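Deliverable D5.2: sample structural annotation.
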Amino acid sequence: MVQALLRRYARGQAAAVRPLVVGRRLLDLGAGEGWVAAALDDAGWRCAADVGAFGRAPVPYVVYDGARLPFADGAFDTTLLLLVLHHCAAPDAALDEAVRVTRARLVVTESVYRNRRDRFWLDLLDGRVNRLRHGGRMAVPRAFRAPGAWRTLFESRGLRVAETRWLGSRWERLVHHPFLYVLDKPPGRAADGARGGGGGQTTSSVRAVVSPRRLIAKGGSAR
């Protein structure tokens, strides 16, 4: 039942972000079950990644340590962070890694709040709903922010906010408030890592639920 609902929701997410994807190499970071990446079957080579072995969809899936992704700088044309950053204990660091491995564009959605009532419902419902996933193994730090606070973070990383808008139905926005940010890396930074970046990593620090040959480690290529 839960997986059927998640898969249906993922199809809606995929439909919303599909026109925003650029290039032919796509990373879905914080992918959960991987249903969004699977639904984007026309988006070129896709890879899903998360901090646990949560994958259920038939797409390449990488489990990493939550600190360093096993990909070279600029390995992906587009990276998706869909309702992910508020689950991170250190969202700023998670964003930096996403920026490092992305060549052109990040597409971010976040549950945001505008007032105390919004924050109350997010704190109450997000944790309860996500405890139903992955046998309760999904981390729920709930690092929610207001829309302007997320924008300030993105711009502090040198990202250009190309578009913002509300997502979801009227009923969804009563308690969930999903907000979209389309973030482009300036041409001069397309090949650079976040805040000076760093070299790509090998797969030695991750458990990969896919052949290592398909990982875009330093010096490698997408297949």
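Annotation notes: The longest strand covers residues 102-111. Confidence is low (pLDDT under 50) at residues 193-223.
The annotation will be released with the project's public dataset once the embargo ends.
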